[in-house]
């Protein structure tokens, strides 16, 4: 008895499909709700309290004139800058840690934030009126943005050797961080008393007195950056398997690295330009998101939501428990112990 083979048109070919885990979707919705609650509380609270129902009316276009001015002109820019800073730092941290395959490779420790801060401080001390180039005035915010971009280019040029090697990237970042810190110290020594006060205020990282002038550039940068990250999303998932597997699957590694690394560092520079250096958020949020999602690598969207929640709730804590302290002080106080724990975990993995 001979077996008959099926005709080609009778064969059923398996079609690969993306699996969406229900737990991940529910967790994302929960984190989004937590962020929305924090934003509403920020909009409602202050010297002039506005009930949440009235805040909701203002947001959808209603409410009386006083409530609209208070919410839209005074409080909304602060909330949107805080939300944008969190989203940008969380996504940037997830990208840099994943590309370097190192939980310590956050924009904070790689020198991007401190480089942007050094450029802003230099502008505050040496050129407080701004720098005019071709009829365009570059102020403190522009200097911070350009400084972050310049530092990221230097770090990439020094660290890239056919790929972003983890330890090399971190060591170069630490060196750049130290150099930027030295520049800031030099500017403080050279500054007058009033300038020194402005420098210290900038370096703490604050959401106080934010305006729509900081909101719009920040969110434009986030929109462009997240779009580029989305374009490289599939290749990004493949790079987690290693360079050899990525090449075997036809993934353009260099192009993927650029599509991911550039928006990560640009968004980081934009956050420093908008609010100053709010430290440790880009370090802690991706690792917290990785634990929550039970993912082998930090999820970008989850990291962005966790970071946004961290920034907004840290701002609430700074405003009402610490007498309107800058939000950067709270994130630093919470992030320093987290960094110590992370260093201990990394050291155990290396020595075992």
Verbal overview:
The chain is an all-alpha fold. It has a single domain, classed as ABC transporter involved in vitamin B12 uptake, BtuC. The chain is 72% helix and 2% strand. It has 14 helices and two strands; from the N terminus they run ααααββαααααααααα. The protein has helices spanning 22-44, 52-59, 65-100, 112-126, 140-159, 166-190, 193-204, 212-231, 233-239, 243-248, 253-275, 281-293, 300-320, 327-351, and strands spanning 131-133, 136-138. A two-stranded antiparallel ribbon has the order 1-2. A hairpin with a 2-residue loop joins β1 (131-133) and β2 (136-138). α4 packs antiparallel against α5 (140-159). The longest helix is centred in the first third of the chain and has 36 residues, at 65-100. It is globular. The N and C termini lie far apart (60 Å). Mean pLDDT is 85; it is low at 8-18.
How would you describe this structure in keywords?
352 residues, mainly alpha, ABC transporter involved in vitamin B12 uptake, BtuC, two-stranded antiparallel sheet, 2 strands, 72% helix, 2% strand, cell membrane
């Amino acid at each position: 008895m001979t077996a008959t083979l099926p005709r080609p048109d009778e064969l059923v070919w398996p079609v690969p499909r993306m699996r969406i885990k229900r737990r991940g979707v529910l967790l994302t919705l929960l984190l989004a709700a937590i962020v929305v609650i924090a934003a509403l509380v920020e909009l409602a609270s202050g010297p002039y309290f506005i009930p949440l129902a009235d805040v909701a009316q203002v947001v959808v276009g209603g409410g009386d004139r006083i409530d609209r001015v208070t919410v839209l002109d005074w409080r909304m820019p602060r909330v949107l800058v805080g939300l944008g800073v969190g989203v940008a730092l969380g996504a940037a941290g997830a990208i840099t840690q994943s590309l370097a395959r190192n939980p310590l490779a956050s924009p904070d420790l790689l020198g991007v934030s401190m480089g942007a801060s050094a450029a802003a401080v230099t502008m505050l001390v040496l050129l407080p009126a701004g720098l005019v180039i071709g009829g365009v005035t570059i102020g403190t915010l522009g200097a911070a943005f350009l400084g972050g971009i310049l530092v990221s280019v230097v770090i990439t040029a020094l660290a890239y050797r056919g790929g972003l090697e983890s330890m090399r990237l971190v060591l170069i970042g630490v060196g750049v961080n130290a150099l930027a810190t030295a520049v800031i110290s030099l500017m403080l020594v050279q500054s007058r008393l009033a300038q020194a006060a402005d420098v210290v205020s900038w370096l703490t990282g604050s959401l106080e007195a934010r305006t729509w002038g900081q909101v719009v550039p920040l969110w434009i940068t986030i929109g462009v950056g997240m779009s580029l990250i989305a374009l490289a999303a599939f290749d990004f998932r493949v790079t987690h398997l290693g360079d050899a597997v990525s090449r075997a699957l036809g993934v353009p590694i260099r192009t993927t690295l650029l599509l991911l690394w550039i928006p990560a560092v640009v968004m980081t520079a934009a956050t420093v330009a908008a609010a100053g250096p709010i430290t440790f958020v880009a370090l802690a949020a991706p690792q917290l998101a990785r634990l929550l999602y039970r993912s082998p690598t930090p999820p970008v969207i989850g990291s962005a939501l966790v970071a946004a929640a961290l920034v907004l709730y840290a701002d609430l804590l700074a405003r009402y428990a610490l007498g309107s302290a800058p939000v950067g002080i709270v994130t630093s106080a919470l992030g320093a112990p987290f960094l110590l724990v992370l260093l201990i975990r990394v050291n155990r993995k290396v020595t075992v």
